[in-house]
Design brief:
The chain is α/β, with parallel strands linked by helices. It has eleven helices and ten strands. The chain has two domains: about 240 residues, Alpha/Beta hydrolase fold, catalytic domain (Rossmann fold), CATH 3.40.50.1820; about 70 residues, no CATH class. The strands form two sheets. An eight-stranded mixed sheet has the order 1-2-4-3-5-6-9-10, with helices on both faces. A two-stranded antiparallel sheet has the order 7-8. Helix 3 crosses helix 4 and helix 5 runs antiparallel to helix 6.
Length: about 300
């Protein structure tokens, strides 16, 4: 059963969303709140013909678990946010709304407020520990295709990979862009917050967006966190890779009894079957409709129900 809701109804940035409640379930049910990856995403986190959050919401509901998904603030209010002369921050873009959505779930009489989990994907996965610490206060954390690397490191790595696999013009354009970013990110380490806010990066963001993220390492929020954690990764992910990102979680948390790891063969960044592992074809990876396999949803549901 799906119901329309508004996250942040009385705020400057109200967001439409969907509360999905399992059918024919008596008593209060566990629930998850979804947190998007980077970019302006709708409530389904739709990219091309793939909609990961919708797949997860429907699959979890069939397994007795409620969920709340909502349009990202930059998707609905992007133009308004760009007018912010101090630049968009991750707090405004993602964290504030995730906490508002979580509060909305916990206040619903059909939801077990003691069993609300967070599912973060990509950038959302990077932020799960921070959102938990800043007010989410979840029963457990679920990270899909995340990373422990800083955002500037991730961006530079992805640009280098695109440059190496692209044609002549791509290499030329990205070579200049990479050089520019490398200089800015190097300078960022000794900049004041005020200086970083004055350095424009495009799309309403300033260098402070990256600096603020770097000042709050994801590892710091997970290293001593005793809550149950589930870390999921697709083997064919071209954005968050097994070698760099999944491995970083294993190195930090591999011996922690509260952490469970799952690696899925043949799945890409959206946890659907990959079309190619060639980075030069990454732009077409979501051009064909596919859905998240039952095995992934089963693992998430089992984690929630056992904690």
């Amino acid at each position: 059963m799906e119901e329309k809701i508004i996250v942040g109804k009385d705020t400057e940035y109200p967001l439409e969303g969907i509360l999905t409640i399992p059918d024919h379930v008596e008593g209060k049910v566990p629930a998850v709140v979804f947190v998007h990856g980077s970019g302006a995403s709708n409530r389904d986190e739709k990219v091309g013909k793939v909609a990961p959050f919708r797949d997860l919401a429907e699959g979890l509901a069939a397994r007795g678990i409620a969920s709340l998904r909502y349009d990202k603030r930059t998707f609905v209010h992007g133009r308004k946010m760009v007018k912010n002369t101090t630049g968009i921050t991750i707090e405004e873009e993602t964290i504030q709304d995730a906490i508002l959505a979580t509060d909305l779930l916990k206040q619903n009489p059909r939801i077990d407020a003691e069993k609300v989990f967070i599912i973060g994907h990509s950038m959302g996965a990077i932020l799960t520990g921070r959102i938990d610490a800043e007010g989410g206060d979840y029963r457990g954390l679920i990270m899909m295709a995340g990373s422990l690397h800083s955002l500037d490191e991730i961006l530079l790595r992805q640009l280098h990979e695109q440059k190496e696999t692209g044609g002549f013009l791509t290499r030329l354009v990205l070579g200049k862009l990479v050089g520019k970013f490398e200089k800015q990110f190097a300078a960022m380490k000794t900049m004041s917050d005020e200086e970083a806010r004055k350095t424009k990066m495009g799309n309403g963001a300033t260098l402070y967006y990256f600096k603020e993220m770097a000042d709050h390492p994801a590892a710091d929020y997970l290293r001593e966190n005793p809550k149950p954690m589930l870390i999921l990764q697709g083997s064919d992910d071209l954005q968050a890779t097994v070698a760099s990102d999944y491995k970083s979680y294993q190195e930090l948390l591999g011996d922690h009894q509260n952490v469970t790891f799952r690696l899925y063969d043949g799945l890409n960044h959206a946890f659907v079957s990959s079309l190619s592992t060639d980075p030069s074809k990454a732009g077409k990876e979501f051009s064909k409709e596919r859905h998240i396999p039952s095995a992934v949803i089963d693992d998430i549901a089992a984690f929630i129900q056992s904690n």
